[in-house]
Amino acid sequence: MNQNTSAAPGQDTRNTRAPELRSQGASPNTSPIIQVTGLEKTYTTARGALTLFKHLDLVVETGEMVAILGQSGAGKSTLLHILGALDTPTAGAVYCASTNVAQLSPRQAAAFRNREIGYVWQFHYLLPEFSALENVAMPLLARGQTKREALPVAAKWLSEVGLEDRADHRPGELSGGEQQRVALARSLVNNPRLLLADEPTGDLDQTTAALVFDLIRRLHRSHGLTSILVTHNLELAARCTRALRLESGRLLPANQDAGRPENPAIVS
Ligand code: ADP
């Protein structure tokens, strides 16, 4: 796309420097870990082109915990997928953890995700036939570690989420909140810099949601993460360092009115 910074296959993309940009109200004393400029995403559908965003900019400083709110269909998940190199933009530069993710080959994107990104989804997607411990170890095994190497690391992460005594349990033998805690441990087992969470508490009751959110926030702080959380929960969003709302293809401070709330996506 428009930034000539992609690395050759196999090359470490971590060193690709992002351009200087002004932050959007974040602390000036930290360095941006995400810099998105002129992002456009257009899907081609049977009914024509569906443009979710055009000229979207976003700067996130290292250590921030940013909530993204917005109506269903506004493009929140799509934005998270693009930041995490699971989807590609139609245009624009997307620097994430010093890498222009818009330029990665599928193989580089997979390596980038493995190294830099922890993902938590609304549904845990744990593998039902494996224990909690094995599920947490899965990303390490996928990287080529042996079980002997991976399981002690996974055990440490299970204990970080308070589930050391559930290591042998299969997902079906865990509560919804416990399943999500296992998924959180799995997302962090590779020590990523960025945690991307798509409605991580959306499938939980209010009390469990608050507990899981507290755990995410504690791990965010203790591991020096930068986190972006898509949520519909205004209370939890207010406890993040910043809350933005995706509306009509733009990211605005959550308390600012975009003026066109009835039309989440721009159809051109
Ligand atoms: P949100 O997370 O805010 O609910 P999404 O990012 O999931 O929104 O989706 C935004 C819009 O893009 C929706 O209208 C959805 O139907 C559409 N969309 C998502 N993925 C695709 C795709 N692969 N092809 C076409 N349209 C898509």
Secondary-structure blueprint:
Blueprint: E1 32-45, E2 48-61, E3 65-69, H1 76-83, E4 91-96, E5 99-100, H2 106-116, E6 117-120, H3 132-142, H4 147-160, H5 176-188, E7 194-198, H6 206-222, E8 226-230, H7 234-238, E9 242-247, E10 250-253, E11 266-267
Parallel strand pairs: 3-8, 3-9, 6-7, 7-8
Antiparallel strand pairs: 1-2, 1-4, 2-11, 4-5, 9-10
Helix pairs in contact: 3-4, 3-5, 4-5, 5-6
Structure explained in plain terms:
This protein is an alpha/beta fold. The protein has seven helices and eleven strands. It has helices at residues 76-83, 106-116, 132-142, 147-160, 176-188, 206-222, 234-238; strands spanning 32-45, 48-61, 65-69, 91-96, 99-100, 117-120, 194-198, 226-230, 242-247, 250-253, 266-267. The strands form two sheets. A six-stranded mixed β-sheet has the order 6-7-8-3-9-10. A five-stranded antiparallel β-sheet has the order 5-4-1-2-11, covered by helices on one side. A hairpin with a 2-residue loop joins β1 (32-45) and β2. α3 packs across α4. The protein is globular, with a radius of gyration of 18 Å. The relative contact order is 0.18. Residues 1-28 and 260-268 have low confidence and may be disordered. It binds adenosine-5'-diphosphate (ADP). Adenosine-5'-diphosphate binds next to β1, β2 and α1.
Keywords:
single chain, 268 residues, alpha/beta, Rossmann fold, six-stranded mixed beta sheet, five-stranded antiparallel beta sheet, 7 helices, 11 strands, 29% helix, 25% strand, globular, disordered N terminus, binds adenosine-5'-diphosphate
